[in-house]
């Protein structure tokens, strides 16, 4: 065993504990003092669950792992604690106490006093019992509002940090390529620019609270064949570079993300966890990322069990280390004894262990975990008597009024009004028929990574921990004078048709029929949306379409409301519903938001982050397609959507006029500016979402017909107008050329100022001149948008 001798004679403390010297020097001193076993211990985690009595955490026994003996592990130290709050229901204060006591034990047991780094899920809010359940990422995308998402992420981060968590496993930056994939609800949308800007805002918010944001899943997970979870990905290098990678590039460069998680999938036979060109060559050598790469759960072991590129656990560990994975999560499997044995006998160089260790210890040092004044007691328990756990219960509120208000704001901004014949907003209906499987279901607003759906379902009898009013509850408050009659009609996916007769009768006797359809979030087949809940078509689950079609045959107007995790083909409802309201798992305040749109209290401003298909079997389809991906006379499959990416209606009207372009020609290394006016010509305040699409008529390689390169929200009172000035760098026209390098080519461009990908309002043509120009990851990523008020006429 190495001696613990690196002591600063001036301060009398170990060099690695001295905050007055550089982090690099501290980490170097610590690595020099460590044994091989102590080094490796910093490279894995242990999955734990906090104690609801405030005692130490208990190892979580997962069916994919053997039992863990903490007493045997801790003398060498421990890199991470996996999901102390997101494993079992626990009162937040007692969970914080449990984590603090465990951290004390970890630090006291190893020679260097190093605590573990604790991580948890935060995909739609801190995944802890009693924490705010915010809208899912697909709803973030529907807001087209990075500022609100940034505020939400900061609030999530503050709650996590207050109870002792250091790292959050979010955001998901996968770009939707096939809506049949079960994890669509976890994504932000089908466009890389939207995903990148919203995802970067989330990273900025989380990091501002001191939480390490983790970008996932790097890269290609969402491009799996047939939308099947963990299926191989068939994308080529150009699609990967121009569609799948830009959100990660943006979130690292502009968001300051400090961690990245690999994707499970393989691309052209190369698993991401084994891809040195991806995890080291691109991520670190090219983009300059200097944080940690953590394994998606069990991904290193999967190199042996699922991918078949490693013969044993040591082979899997060596392959992942060489590729650039620093930390094995969620547990110790390959980076434990197998790695130690392989290093000892020379199969794996110790230098690879040191490289990963340097990154993990640097992060711990920057989090203050090596400082001499580090305390295991988190901020939420400062000044509290920790010897009386019973008195702590209920002391920490992770779902306070500010959180709920923010959750409602996001939910309101994310509701998308797909169609409306004038029926909405409803004006004092006397009799409302509230129908469908999600009409009176509290958890219909939650995604699969919310605590109640992810963990709570495995603990029947445990309270939800948060208030989840159903749409029945919020409509009763929104329309206090109306008679509301509820009939389920059918289940989400049970195929039961026996309730349709009752629903039909209730609808006949009503002034308006609200039919509330969609998904039940769950994991691995427990739901119709969520991880491992892939589908073979985009028909509404179960017999919901039969219920909807039966109601459409009546004379009573039908408003279709969707609480779902993915877009669905709606058949006749596209043309025959009086209105269609789309909400993607809008969180605990979601039914308030929907009720507000139905009543007109809220003017909808959400826009589709994914296209809504016209037919259930046209996948994979996305607006971001080349000419051959769109409808043609040589195929009987028409991928044209019923409602396009970026679409969303309002209760007011907007006119776009007076477009001017400052130049007709611009060099490939410059920019050009568009100026135009947006006016609210309706009778109430509203928000228009201006979208900027680029069309490149002639390029050296096939390009999408158009792609989003900018957007902004414009809030206007009745009669008010704004003059928008949009400066477009030529860099935005870049793409991956024939030689694999990103290029800006001379030639004509068409810039479409649009209300959706199929609704251009103004079009400008500008010719890029000069020579072909190569750009890299330092290129300009955004158009700049300014707004100035226009004097009323």
From TrEMBL:
Keyword Transcription regulation: no
Keyword field: Hydrolase
Superkingdom per UniProt: Bacteria
One family name in Pfam for this protein: Glyco_hydro_3
Domain Fibronectin type III-like: 688-757
Family: Belongs to the glycosyl hydrolase 3 family.
Protein name: Beta-glucosidase
Organism in which the protein naturally occurs: Streptomyces xiangluensis
């Amino acid at each position: 065993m190495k001696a613990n001798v690196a002591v600063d004679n001036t301060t009398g403390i170990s060099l690695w504990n001295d905050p007055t010297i550089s982090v690099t020097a501290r980490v170097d001193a610590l690595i020099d003092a460590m044994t091989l076993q102590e080094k490796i211990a910093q490279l894995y985690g242990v999955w734990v669950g906090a104690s609801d009595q405030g005692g130490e955490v208990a190892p979580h026994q997962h069916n994919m792992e053997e039992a863990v003996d903490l007493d045997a592990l801790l003398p060498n130290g421990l890199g991470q604690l996996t999901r102390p709050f997101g494993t079992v229901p626990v009162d937040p204060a007692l969970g914080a106490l449990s984590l603090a006591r465990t951290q004390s034990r970890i630090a006291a047991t190893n020679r260097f006093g190093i605590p573990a780094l604790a991580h948890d899920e935060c995909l739609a809010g801190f995944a802890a019992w009693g924490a705010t359940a915010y809208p899912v990422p697909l709803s973030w995308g529907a807001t087209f509002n990075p500022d609100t998402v940034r505020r939400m992420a900061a609030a999530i981060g503050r709650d996590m940090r207050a109870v002792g968590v250091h790292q959050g496993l979010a955001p998901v930056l996968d770009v939707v390529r096939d809506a049949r994939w079960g994890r669509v609800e976890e994504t932000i949308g089908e466009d890389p620019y939207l995903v990148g800007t919203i995802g970067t805002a989330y990273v900025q918010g989380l990091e501002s609270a001191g939480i390490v944001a983790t970008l996932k899943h790097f890269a290609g997970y969402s491009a799996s064949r047939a939308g099947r979870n963990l299926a191989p990905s068939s994308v080529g290098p150009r699609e990967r570079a121009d569609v799948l990678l830009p959100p990660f590039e943006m979130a690292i460069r502009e968001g300051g993300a400090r961690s990245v998680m690999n994707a499970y999938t393989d691309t052209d036979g190369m698993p991401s966890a084994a891809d040195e060109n991806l995890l080291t060559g691109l991520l670190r050598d090219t983009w300059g990322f200097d944080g940690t790469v953590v394994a998606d759960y069990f991904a290193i072991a999967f190199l042996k069990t699922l991918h078949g590129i490693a013969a044993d656990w040591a082979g899997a560990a060596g392959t992942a280390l060489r590729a650039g994975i620093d930390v094995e999560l969620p547990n110790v499997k390959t980076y434990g004894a197998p790695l130690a044995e392989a290093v000892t006998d020379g199969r794996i160089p110790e230098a690879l262990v040191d490289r990963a260790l340097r990154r993990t210890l640097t992060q711990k040092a920057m989090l203050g975990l090596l400082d001499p004044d580090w305390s295991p007691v988190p901020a939420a328990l400062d000044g509290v008597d920790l010897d009386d756990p019973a008195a702590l219960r209920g002391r920490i509120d992770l779902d306070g009024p500010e959180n709920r208000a923010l959750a409602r704001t996001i939910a309101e901004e994310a509701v998308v009004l797909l169609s409306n014949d004038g029926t909405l907003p409803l004006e004092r209906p006397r009799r409302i028929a509230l129908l469908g499987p999600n009409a009176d279901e509290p958890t219909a607003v939650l995604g699969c990574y919310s605590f109640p759906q992810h963990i709570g379902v495995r603990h029947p009898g445990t309270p939800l921990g948060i208030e989840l009013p159903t749409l029945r509850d919020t409509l009763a408050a929104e329309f206090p004078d109306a008679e509301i009659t509820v009939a389920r009609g059918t289940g989400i996916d049970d195929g039961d048709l026996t309730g349709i007769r009752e629903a039909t009768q209730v609808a006949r006797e009503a002034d308006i029929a609200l039919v509330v359809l969609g998904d039940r979030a769950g994991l691995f087949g427990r739901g119709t949306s969520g991880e491992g809940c892939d589908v073979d078509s985009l028909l509404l689950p179960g017999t919901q379409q039969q219920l909807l079609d039966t109601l459409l045959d009546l004379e009573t107007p039908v408003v279709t409301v969707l609480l779902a995790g993915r877009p669905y083909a709606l058949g006749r409802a596209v043309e025959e519903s009086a209105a269609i309201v789309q909400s993607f798992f809008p969180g605990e305040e979601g039914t308030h938001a929907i009720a507000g749109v139905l009543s007109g209290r809220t003017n909808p401003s959400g826009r589709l982050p994914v296209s809504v298909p016209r037919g259930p079997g046209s996948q994979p389809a996305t607006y971001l397609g080349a000419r051959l991906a769109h409808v043609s006379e040589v195929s009987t499959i028409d991928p044209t959507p019923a409602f396009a990416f970026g679409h969303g209606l309002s209760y007011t009207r907007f006119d776009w006029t007076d477009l001017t372009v400052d130049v007709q020609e611009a060099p490939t290394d410059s920019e050009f500016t568009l100026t135009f006016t947006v006016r609210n010509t309706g009778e109430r305040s509203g928000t228009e979402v201006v979208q900027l699409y680029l069309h490149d008529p002639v390029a050296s390689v096939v390009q999408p017909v158009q792609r989003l390169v900018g957007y902004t929200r414009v809030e206007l009172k009745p009669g008010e107008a704004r003059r928008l000035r949009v400066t477009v760098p030529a860099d935005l026209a870049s793409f991956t050329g024939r030689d694999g390098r990103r290029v800006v080519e001379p030639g004509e461009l068409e810039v479409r100022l649009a209300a959706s990908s199929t609704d251009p309002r103004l079009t400008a043509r500008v010719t890029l001149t000069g020579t072909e120009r190569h750009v890299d990851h330092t290129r300009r990523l955004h158009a700049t948008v300014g707004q100035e008020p226009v004097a009323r006429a």
